[in-house]
Amino acid sequence: MTNTATQLASALNSRPVQGQALYAAMQNLRAEQPRLRAQDVAAQLAVSEGELLACRVGQDVVQLRTDWQELLPALLSLGEVMALTRNEHCVHERHGHYGETTVMPSGKMGLVLSPDIDLRLFLGGWQSAFAVAEETARGMQRSLQFFDAQGVAAHKVFLTSQSHIDAWAPLVERFAAPEQSAVLAVEPAAAKPAELADSEIDVVDLRERWSTLKDTHHFFALLKHAKTSRPQALRLAGSQWAEPLATDALPELFTAAAEQQLPIMVFVGNEQCVQIHSGPVSNLRWAGDWFNVLDPKFNLHLKAHAITQLWRVRKPTVDGVITSWEAYDAKGELVVQLFGVRTPNTPESAQWRELAERFPVLAAMEA
Predict the structure, then answer these.
(1) CA neighbor of 151 nearest in space, from 291, 226, 54, 227
(2) Considering the entire predicted model, what is its pTM?
């Protein structure tokens, strides 16, 4: 990093530096390390990715109105796009049309249920939106990027060679914010409540309520009632409902599913958005510590060494027991979740269940 960039980055630790000063620091850093990803640039400059993008307003970025009820359905006009949702350790990319979009009257929740792009949107946490048109080594790249109150990326939509490029300018013009600011106000994240000690959890009640679940979506209410985190609930549920697995079994499950061409559901999300792939996976590749799915319509990039807990989870429903695999990081955050593909009101695939149950329980836990 140049002296100027270093000085500006250091200054960010003592006072907010945005706008032109942040833009200059970004330009200096990118000149020295042109292959850095946006989140890495932001990390080195000690700002959020949202703040980093906002400093480019008036250059190659336009700030958009946060009218989700109009903006999100309008994305269908762009044709085929690539939807991207990520968390700290996993990136989920899916090509398709941003169709069948529903935003609830409250504006706090949304759904996209098209055949290729399947999203659960927690819009109450979405705070800003930008249209980006930047020159890259591969040519012009256009995207719409959405951020939460901390400036953390909630979701991104990229145009591709199959998109309706002629719809881009009218959409940006229609939703451009009346006032364009190169400064994005961000808020500190609220502290998460400390996990209760296992001895403070009513394990008998937890297991009883788990055994009477009727729908996988009721699991969130179960956690709230029990006052547990997800990993703690899995730890206390008992082997009938949750079993720990060796973390290196996760790539093995993907490999086995690919060999069988077994349709699976791959959930990746953050606090503001969950993105789902439903279908087979085929082209699996390692790149250093990253495990990747590189299929034409679906890409997954998983930082495999960041997975510290892997669980096989069973939840009873009116359609029978539903089996999933859940991977967590060292902070107890859910990184990726896998299910077998199934339609509503039908039992899960016997082929998926056989595969999910094939892997042995973690030996250390058996002892």
Answers:
(1) 54
(2) 0.92
